[in-house]
Amino acid sequence: xxxxxxxxxxxxxxxxxxxxxxxxxxxxxxxxxxxxxxxxxxxxxxxxxxxxxxxxxxxxxxxxxxxxxxxxxxxxxxxxxxxxxxxxxxxxxxxxxxxxxxxxxxxxxxxxxxxxxxxxxxxxxxxxxxxxxxxxxxxxxxxxxxxxxxxxxxxxxxxxxxxxxxxxxxxxxxxxxxxxxxxxxxxxxxxxxxxxxxxxxxxxxxxxxxxxxxxxxxxxxxxxxxxxxxxxxxxxxxxxxxxxxxxxxxxxxxxxxxxxxxxxxxxxxxxxxxxxxxxxxxxxxxxxxxxxxxxxxxxxxxxxxxxxxxxxxxxxxxxxxxxxxxxxxxxxxxxxxxxxxxxxxxxxxxxxxxxxxxxxxxxxxxxxxxxxxxxxxxxxxxxxxxxxxxxxx
Length: 393
What we know:
Low-confidence stretches: none
Helix content: 40-55%
Shape: globular
CATH class of the largest domain: Alpha Beta
CATH superfamily of the largest domain: Glycogen Phosphorylase B
Mean pLDDT: 94
Distance between the termini: 11 Å
Structural class: alpha/beta
Number of helices: 15
Order of helices and strands: EHEEHEHEHEHEHHEHEHEHEHEHEHHH
Largest sheet: 7 strands, parallel
């Protein structure tokens, strides 16, 4: 039995977790997922789902009161799961995210004490947080040392982990397993809804190239850099359009004010939570996806774009350049350099329709080949078995 532990469990992380659980279950593993109360993929699941985290705080407006409620919910649920995990005694507990490091360290130490025969696996989606991450290096080094295996999503991230944590990391078992493409989720999308949203977007009314910035909008995503770059680009290519789509996770009033005053003709904004079908419609309605990230480890946005055959303009952070290069998926520029970003946008604008069509077909084929969830599940299954005295059959 494998317990997948994912407190976050919604939006992009939820899609990853679903694909992992679904693919592991397909090859015969008994998988139970402990996750967010509002986990979105229950209708697609072939595995057991236990919705436990953030029943009240998830739907509250971000403020100090929500933060306090969220902290209390997290502590109560983690204690409850401590009891449940100890009673059930799974062969493997595979943690996807920790959210409150000081408490999480105590929690995982108790798990190790009470379940000495259970193997502990951690997927370090981010080697450390993208905002003020270095201040967490000490506690993360202790947390990472508690696990039998740590999974990262590229050789670049493995190198980063070894470089940041130094001598301590040399004794850790760090395995590279890619993130997967979103092919399975896309195929299960409601096509009528996708067509409806595509009609609302109405790509045909735009004469120039359409660029897309999409997903949860955090400070590390570089929206401010993109806007400066777009200011230059829109003067040179006045028919091009930029869509900004997603849920802000910080106050973006400054960015919105700049857009309103200078760029409103060339930028279309749609903020807030989006269903998978609406998100896919935006991807399908665009020519290039832009990822001007200041910091990142890997990106579900990137893999979704490549799965749909959309070339990208991305920055040289984390595993992004490694992934783009593997499938010849677009242009890579240095982070925090809005001039270089505008030059890459210009190259993208000059791409002919025929080249773009053929390029997209090649990207999609290579992405599906290289980032298949069947391959990822098989590799993960093999990893579990290397840890167990009595391997799964």
